[in-house]
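hey so u asked for the seq, here:
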Amino acid sequence: MSIMQKESPSIPRGPNGFKTFQSPSLYASSPQEEDIENNVSRFVAGEQFYNHEMYGSLRHGGSVSFLSMDCLGLAAATFSSMFSYQCLTGVLQPLMSTQLVLSVQENVSVQRLIEMPMALSFLFGLLSDCYPIMGLRRKGYMIVGLVLNGASVFVIAGLSAHFESRESKDKNDPNDALVVLSILMAALASIGCIITYLCVHTRVIELSQRESLVSRGSIQATYLIFRRLVSLLAASFTYAVLGPVSGDSNVPLSTAMVLLAVISILPLPVILKFWKEEHYSLHTSMKVRGRIFWKIMQQKAVWRIMAFICFFTLFLSIKFSDSTNVIRKWSGAATDNSLVVKVITDVVMLLTMVVWRYVFMNRSWKQFFASAPLFQIIPHLLIAILVAFDVVRNRYLYRTMYSITAISDGIGLLNTIVPLTEIIQEGSEGATVGLTLSLQRLIGIFVSTNAVGLFQGNNFYDPAEVAADSSSAHWDVLLSLVLNFGLNALALIGLFFLPSQKLDAQQLRMYGGFTKAASSLIIAFSVVMFVYSLVINIMTFVPSLSCVKLVGGAGCSS
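ran it, structure tokens below
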């Protein structure tokens, strides 16, 4: 049985073999097009092919608008997915530090351990492809994830209420069993969040494949813009709960958790009634689907796009936070309102989506994504030089330059959805999206784990010299950031693997062939990242190992 997507004889094809669901009458080639085909050995989509709709959709059903009744259930699910996860991560931080009495180092490690199960996105995606719930591959699992998240948050609220009711003298010595239970519930809530996100993300890609070539990406842009708006609401909720001062919340954490659970579950009736999806009556065993996907990972189009995503995620995620915080402090922006900063960042990211939708959606992928490292490095480097050498230390200039770097974050949101849309095959959508999210999460955990180890500030400069604002500290901090930016620039290597644009990606999928070692390399990379991060985080809780600098310790005395 061929691994490639089975095609119906009734489905017409374009002049170069690309499948379309539009009328065959559109395929009369002009003399200019025939001349192009006769004079090049490998078809390369030119700008002229974006000026008409001679190529159609990749999937049956017709295009839909995200802001329509057809997508009302999907929009409600998007709200629940984004709001619950962002608020959960924000509110859990004071819970870990104040009620569970964890050290800063342990707090960071617990958050990484909570995120570990989210690396199982691939398994959840594969499961949804194999075993539809009541014939629905996305909706059923979306509801399961939403209920799991809501129930776990309710349990966390109960545990938080218990910690709040204890006597002051007992608050610094919480019951170990309850601490473990709290961490377990937080992990289950995170699993619920990732299942909902996986289902929503996959469904958006499925709907995007129903759009014609010229408009493909429109629903993705609207979806990502909507997520930014929900992010603003979530940031406002977190700020209202925690207040401007860390550790001094305006609302009891137990009450905040109850509110979060209620708001997250509130869209459930809308999802049940308005989520529209195709029915699949037949199940496929995970063994069979796993073999099929193993072959899919060997396709050059798939593993090359995965390599691009990994390079961008890994190297653009590396941030020497301690050095950046020194620059922020020297500029006078360290005490800026966190909500205002978040609003500015989200608005810049939102505007990036709008610009992509109306300017870059049908232009070269390589040129567009190449701008991400540039927008992250250049503004950071300029303001670091100005502040480090005391040329200009102005908080407003710092915030302006720093806000420009949010363009890079906005572009980063697109790299996990735009290329995938062109190469995902029907029947393996969940597994492909899940694999992408798993790789992203593993890389994120790896980077954040090293943020308190290899990338710690005191590995590059003397904190005492920084406090004294000495000349040597200026150079040390700046050089550490130059190293940071050099690592960020390595993300450009990923562009080597990225197809030029939509039709180039489709051509690579159909005619690019296979690389047998690709599947094994992807799995090996994932296992190494997972084991490394798991071991480093576990070392944090072992007294004899927690002092190692690699895990964020101050160094072990001999």
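Residues 1-54 have pLDDT under 50 and may be disordered. The chain has two domains: 64-283, 293-540.
lmk if thats what u needed
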